[in-house]
Amino acid sequence: MENQGEAQEVVKTDVEELKGQMGQIIEALKVLQSQGETCTSYHQQLGEEAQIFPLHGLPPNYTPPMGANLGQDCV
After folding, report:
1. How big is the chain by its Cα radius of gyration, in Å?
2. How many helices (H) and strands (E) does the chain have?
3. Which residues contact 64 (CB under 8 A, 6 or more apart)?
4. How far apart are CA 5 and CA 68, in angstroms?
């Protein structure tokens, strides 16, 4: 009977420890979620601004050719 009582105390201790760890995990997740929302709103603001890229000497509406060997040297 004593072994059962000791086992219950060990389980209670483990459960309390797990509850504390779960609380820490939940707090960390809340922080990450709030940081993600801040980051998302920042990127949405950036996306609203028009982005104009230089042509680098290419004609307007130029589309590079699509081929199987692009960027590979012949051997």
Report:
1. 30
2. 1, 0
3. 70
4. 72
Our CA dihedral for 66, 67, 71, 75, rounded to 10 degrees, sits at -170
pLDDT at residue 65 tops 60: yes
pLDDT of residue 60: 74
- Rounded to whole angstroms, the Cα distance separating 44 from 57 reads 31
Interval 21-64: pLDDT, tens: 999 999 999 988 887 777 666 656 655 555 566 667 777 777 77
3-state secondary structure of 43: helix
CA dihedral (27, 28, 29, 33) in degrees, to 10, reads 100
- Percentages helix, strand, coil for the chain (3-state, rounded to 5) are 65, 0, 35
For residues 57 and 20, what is the distance between their CA atoms, to the nearest angstrom? 62
Q: Please tell me the pTM assigned to this model.
A: 0.45
